[in-house]
Fold:
Amino acid sequence: MIVTIDGPAGAGKSSVARALAGRLGFRFLDTGAMYRAVALAAMERRVAWSASDELAALSRQISLQFDGDRLLLDGRDVSDEIRDPSVAGVIHHVADHVGVREHLVELQRREAERGDLVTEGRDQGTVVFPAAECKVFLTATPEERARRRVAQDLAGGRIVQFDEVLQQIRERDRRDETRPVGRLVPAADAVHVLTDGLTQEQVVDRLQQLVSERQLAWRANSA
Ligand code: C5P
Structure:
């Protein structure tokens, strides 16, 4: 069974998807990490963002492998580096690139061939797995997402301005919603879950219940 979780940045998709996969005993795929790793590789190899063919070729040359929660780029653990703000600042060059997307979509589909999967991103229920049995569109208002970010940063000892964070979130939403390929848009058959005011536990409970209902319907259909 494939469970897709799409939604905007900062809606808590990664933590929720990871926790859900753990409860269900499914594998978990963080597709944003794949785009981040390609961006990191391009920065390290100094590929110019305007060199479209080189970028596409690079995405095919590198090896991306998940090892539990860690992502290995050519065998090197880059899980922390890809979260650096310098990567977030340039990632649109990679995420907007048709050739890079084509290749990453292919890799994502290959992951699903290995069995039950919870996959998380922007285009999982629309482009990558249009026939997925269970699709979720996870959102929170920009203000709620900014509040969570500020609280997270504070807990980590970093002081950030709410207005600045809100502005960044709105800018990422705009980019995600208007890119020519792999645009952030809910699948017609996705269940929308608004997480404002809910704890992570409550969100995972809700999704687990949804998956159980789909599993029952799926089994009944294939019996
Ligand atoms: O989810 P995360 O913030 O790690 O994603 C990093 C970037 O990759 C985002 O800015 C998003 O635009 C892009 N992305 C994408 N398609 C996906 C997953 C992420 O374009 N399936």
